[in-house]
Design brief:
This protein is 34% helix and 18% strand. Helix 3 packs parallel to helix 11 and helix 6 packs across helix 7. The structure holds phosphoenolpyruvate and manganese (II) ion.
Length: 337
């Protein structure tokens, strides 16, 4: 059930409703909207009549939510949610581009990439310190040392930093350095990890599991939202299909479909989604055309020398060109970069 508050309802009225909800053994999570606030009531008690809630001061209406993902659903919140990465709101008019190397390799590499992607217009820096590698003998990332370099790159450039967290016991450490926590495709169904990032306040980029349906993807987001962290961005990063000319199949139709299902911002990762640097530029444009709120792009000073994912990585010059080319396209669909 959700309780929609009247526009202009007061803090006291909201607190009163929250107390009542908690008083009947349900969990109350407040979703702030631009026009009105909504209180999501989580739990399986259904025996309190809607009239009881409707009569509380400040309440517009209480209603049951039919979709299995309650808080992520547009039924609950028809207006887009904006999630701040640093000062940049994802889910608003401007499309945000997050860029940087697949892995943090060393301090100089990271800082020079950070400076260049910032100059080109990126609004956040990405870089992996804990890398989820298919091969256990492959480079696993610099770990805490990598996090320190990310924090230094933020100091130097002012860009908020995004990095992946692989396990619940690392959440606190990663959140100490990073501004945004990324949950990778291989961990979309790691419910213990989802709960852990839901219990801390930093924004989370949740990547779609490579074989997850959109409903499973949204239920994974629900794990985070229902723990109290409503700063979630969804990232389409390609799924496994029979096709093997690309590394994964980037499902661009997922973007407008997710926009119908959810109020959360949707970003697209054309780097992992294709595995080929030559396809990153056209698929980024495709993502903007179908309504993505942001892009996550792998960029390196010298992609041929990148320790991980060089084949899908743009050079800093290619990235700069892409940013220029995206602008008129974004404007053509009523957005901007
Ligand atoms: C990444 O962003 O570097 C990454 C490992 O992504 P994914 O989880 O989508 O494979
Ligand atoms: Mn990568």
């Amino acid at each position: 059930m959700i309780i929609v508050m009247k526009p202009g309802s007061s803090r006291e009225e909201i607190d009163h409703v929250v107390k009542k909800v908690e008083g009947v053994g349900l969990k109350a999570v407040l979703l702030h909207g631009t026009e009105r606030n909504v209180i999501a009531c989580l739990g399986d008690k259904r025996d309190i009549a809607q009239d009881f809630w409707n009569a509380l001061p400040g309440v517009e209406k209480a209603m049951p939510i039919l979709s299995p993902y309650k808080m992520a659903s547009r039924e609950v919140k028809p207006t887009n949610t904006e999630v701040l990465l640093g000062k940049f709101p994802f889910g608003a008019k401007k499309i945000g581009v997050i860029a940087g190397p697949c892995a943090v390799e060393n301090k100089n590499q990271l800082i020079s990439i950070a400076q260049r992607v910032k100059e080109a217009g990126a609004v956040a820096l990405r870089g992996g310190a804990f890398k989820p590698r298919t091969n256990p003998y492959a480079f696993q990332g610099l770990m805490e040392e990598g996090l320190e370099y990310l924090a230094e790159a933020r100091e130097k450039t002012g860009l908020p930093v995004v990095t992946e967290v692989l396990s619940p016991e690392h959440v606190q450490m990663v959140a100490k350095y990073a501004d945004v926590l990324q949950i990778g495709t291989r961990n979309m169904g790691n419910f213990v990890l989802l709960k852990a990032v839901g219990e801390q306040p930093k924004p989370v980029i949740l990547k779609r599991g490579m074989s997850a349906t959109l409903e499973e993807f949204l239920l994974a987001a629900e794990y985070i939202l229902s723990r109290g962290n409503t700063n979630v961005l969804l990232c389409e990063r390609g799924i496994r299909t029979f096709e093997n000319h690309t590394r994964f199949t980037l499902s661009l139709s997922a973007v407008p479909q997710l926009k119908q299902f959810t109020h959360l911002p949707i970003i697209v990762d054309p780097s992992h989604g294709t595995g080929k640097s030559s396809l990153v530029n056209p698929m980024s444009k495709g993502a903007v055309a179908v309504g993505a709120d942001g892009l996550l792009i792998e960029v390196h000073i010298d992609p041929e020398k990148a320790l991980i994912d060089g084949a899908q990585t743009l050079s800093t010059e290619e990235f700069k060109r892409l940013m220029k080319e995206l602008k008129p396209l974004a404007q053509a669909v009523g957005r901007d970069v």
